[in-house]
Structures are given as structure tokens and as C-alpha cells.
From TrEMBL:
InterPro entries for the chain: MdtP/NodT-like, OMP_efflux
Keyword Signal tagged: yes
Record's protein name: Cobalt-zinc-cadmium efflux system outer membrane protein
Coiled-coil annotated residue ranges, if any: 299-333
GO MF term (any one): efflux transmembrane transporter activity
Region forming the signal peptide: 1-30
Biological source species: Brevundimonas bullata
Family: Belongs to the outer membrane factor (OMF) (TC 1.B.17) family.
Protein keywords: Coiled coil, Signal
The keyword Methyltransferase belongs to this UniProt entry's keyword annotation: no
Length: 417
């Protein structure tokens, strides 16, 4: 009579093929990414930071330009020439060469310089904020790449453990101690583990590609050696009272207030002084000319621009108030998340240790025939879940540190900017 257990060799062959594919899927990586601290030193070359630097330089150039006085106007006027009667030809002509200079009264130049300085200060603060945000983005991409690599290695271990359990189940099936369905279940679990490994590999490769792009590395990243997610955030790091976003909002409010002053000054008359020399051809004589001119604000008193500047100031004041309210709440929330993530890391580490011991005992019991395959599968799934939870907890801790560092105006795991 044919034995009902003739099919297991197919399972053994399938397990061998999966093991061989696993070995081929993991080449030796030889180009690890530089440590996060090294990459952090190059964050000033990030596109967002370079853009902020250029905008700051532009604002400083406008300050220099605001200090410059307006150019004088040189004018040449000829009167009573090439007409009719006594004014025929150029004999009775009067020629005037004059120089006119705008006086910039009422504090026009000072107000213009104040606005330019305020805008330059805002641009400098935006540059600092861009530097902090670039550092945070780099830290997040680095941590995600490291977490993806760990999940890939965990998927490899999970496949190895699943294959070992499948081989143990196959042995029991061949000995007649387990039904054929256990062998089929082991084969299905091995296929599922292999699919999870493929997915983890794709996620790892994508994370490495993002890190290569964000860090602007010349060669593709193929591994992480210096860990970031294992680093404990420095508890003593304390930023200033105002977050970078609040400081930017304060600078924008101050600039808006100075624009009101300059718009009010613009409503006053423009005063210009002129001096020149007039030539009288008929008398063969010359004389000096003096003049003073000003605009009469009869129709245009710049009221629209003044009202617009006041409205923009109110908007900037509202943004500042909102930024202050959100900053305090965000800082408290970030501190709470960081403390919670530290506790979660400790808890998941303890969970991994317990799950490893539980799986070890389950495997011993399964090999001795005292524990069923379902119990072994459950303990294995708990171990895999615990290990992935430990990675997730560490990644959450890095994200909490990134949020808190951004609110404190510093680089993650670094000093205050």
C-alpha cells in the first residue's frame, strides 16, 4: 500500500530551494553610509539650505542698497532760441545747466534702511530654520534607512527560523507523528516568510536610495554601520525660550511694523533742491540759479498703502500669536513623546528577551513532542512581532528627538544652533 507520507520530499526540496534563494539574495555589501555625525557636517550643502543662504545674501545686499542716496539729476535747458522775430537763431538764447538732488527729508532714508535690515534679519532666521529642518530631514531618512535594513535582517532570520521549524515538522511527519497537513502548513509558512523577505528587501533598497539622494552621496548607500536609532537622545539638551518658527514670526512682525512707518513717510511731500548756471547769449553774461521744489499731496496721500501695511502688520501679529501658542503645545507634546518612546524601547527590549526564551522553550517542547506545531507557530510569530516592535520603538524615539530638536533650534542628537 502506498504510504500517505510520500509527499514530504517535495517539501524538503522546496525548503532547500528557499534556503538557497535566501543565500543568493543577500550579497555582501561593501559600501556603508558614513556616520550620521559626518553627514550632519555637510548639511549646509543641502539645496534648501543653499537656497536660504542665497535669500539671506540677497536681503543683505538690499540693506547695502537701501543706504545709498538717490542720484542727482543733471538737466540742460535752452530757451528763446530758433524762434521768430528777435528770437531767430541762437543770439538771444538762454541756456541753463542745472543739478537737482532729492533731499529725502522726514527720515525717508533711515526708514528705508530699517525695513531692509528687518527683512535681512528675517532672512537670516529663515536660513537658521532651514538648517535645522535639513538636519532633521537627514536624521529621519538615515534612521528610516537603518530601520529598513534591520527589518530586512529580521526577515532573513524569520525565514531561517521558519525553515527550521518546517524541517522539524517534516521530520515528525516522516516519522508518522504528525499528519500531512502539518507539512503543508510549514511549506505555506516558508513561502509567506520568503514574500516578507522580498518586501523587506524592496523597502530597504528604497530607503537606501532616499538616503543617497538626501545626503548627496557620490555612490549609492548599500549598508548602515554606525547606528543612529540605538543612540539615546541627550536629556540635557535645552533650547531657547522661543522656537525658530516663533523667532521668524517675530522678525516678520517687526518688518511689517517698519513698513507702516515708511508708508507714512511716503505720504509726505517729496522735496528736491536744485542749483545751476544760466547763460544769456544776448548780454554775453552768466548767472547762478537756485530752486526748491516739493510735491503737493492734494490727491495722493498714500492712504491705501498705509492701510495695507497696517493690515499686513495685524496679520503678522496674528501669525506670531498662533506660532507662540502652537510652539508651547508642540514642545510639551514632543517631550512627552520622547519620554514615552524611551519607555517603549525598554519595554520592547524586555519583550524581545521574553519572546526569545518562549520560542526556545517551545522549540524544545516541539522537538520532544510535548508542544503542538500551532503553539510553536504562535511563539515564533510572537518573536518576529517583538523584534519588529523593537525596531519601530527605536524609530519612534528618533522621530520624537527630531521633533524636539526642531522646536529647540538644534540638530537632532546635536548642539543648539
Amino acid at each position: 500500500m502506498p504510504s500517505p507520507y510520500r509527499r514530504p520530499p517535495r517539501l524538503a526540496a522546496g525548503c532547500a530551494m528557499v534556503a538557497l534563494a535566501t543565500a543568493l539574495a543577500g550579497p555582501a555589501w561593501a559600501d556603508p553610509a558614513p556616520a550620521f555625525e559626518i553627514l550632519l557636517q555637510q548639511v549646509g550643502a543641502a539645496p534648501a539650505t543653499v537656497e536660504a543662504d542665497a535669500l539671506r545674501d540677497a536681503a543683505e545686499a538690499r540693506v547695502r542698497q537701501a543706504r545709498v542716496r538717490p542720484n542727482p539729476t543733471l538737466a540742460l535747458d535752452v530757451e528763446n532760441a530758433f524762434g521768430s522775430g528777435p528770437f531767430e537763431g541762437f543770439g538771444n538764447a538762454e541756456t541753463t545747466l542745472g543739478l537737482t538732488q532729492e533731499l529725502e527729508l522726514w527720515g525717508r532714508r533711515g526708514a528705508r534702511v530699517d525695513v531692509a535690515r528687518a527683512e535681512a534679519g528675517t532672512a537670516a532666521l529663515r536660513r537658521d530654520l532651514a538648517l535645522v529642518e535639513a538636519a532633521g530631514r537627514l536624521a529621519l531618512v538615515y534612521a528610516e534607512a537603518e530601520a529598513a535594513e534591520r527589518r530586512f535582517h529580521l526577515a532573513e532570520e524569520a525565514l531561517s527560523v521558519t525553515l527550521a521549524d518546517a524541517r522539524a515538522a517534516l521530520t515528525l511527519v516522516e516519522e508518522g507523528r504528525e499528519p500531512m497537513v502539518r507539512a503543508l502548513q510549514g511549506e505555506s509558512e516558508a513561502a509567506t516568510a520568503r514574500a516578507s523577505l522580498d518586501e523587506a528587501q524592496a523597502e530597504r533598497d528604497a530607503a537606501f536610495a532616499r538616503l543617497t539622494a538626501i545626503a548627496m552621496l557620490p555612490t549609492p548607500v548599500t549598508g548602515i554601520e554606525a547606528s543612529l536609532i540605538d543612540q539615546v537622545p541627550p536629556a540635557s539638551m535645552v533650547g531657547g525660550d522661543a522656537t525658530p518658527v516663533v523667532r521668524v514670526a517675530e522678525a516678520e512682525r517687526d518688518a511689517a511694523e517698519r513698513r507702516i512707518a515708511i508708508e507714512r513717510i511716503q505720504s509726505r511731500p517729496d522735496v528736491s533742491a536744485s542749483v545751476g548756471m544760466r547763460r544769456y547769449e544776448a548780454e554775453d553774461a552768466t548767472a547762478l540759479t537756485f530752486g526748491l521744489s516739493l510735491t503737493l499731496p492734494l490727491f495722493d496721500q498714500n492712504r491705501g498703502n498705509i492701510d495695507a501695511a497696517q493690515a499686513e502688520y495685524r496679520a503678522a501679529e496674528a501669525r506670531l500669536m498662533s506660532a507662540r501658542q502652537e510652539a508651547q503645545a508642540d514642545r510639551n507634546a514632543a517631550k512627552a513623546r520622547l519620554n514615552a518612546s524611551a519607555s517603549r524601547v525598554s519595554a520592547t527590549d524586555a519583550g524581545v528577551a521574553a519572546a526569545q526564551e518562549a520560542y526556545r522553550l517551545s522549540r524544545i517542547g516541539f522537538d520532544a513532542g510535548r508542544i503542538s506545531q500551532l503553539e510553536l507557530r504562535s511563539s515564533r510569530a510572537a518573536l518576529i512581532s517583538a523584534r519588529n516592535a523593537a525596531v519601530d520603538a527605536r524609530l519612534a524615539r528618533v522621530r520624537a528627538e527630531i521633533d524636539l530638536a526642531r522646536l529647540q533650534g538644534r540638530a537632532p542628537f546635536g548642539a543648539v544652533q
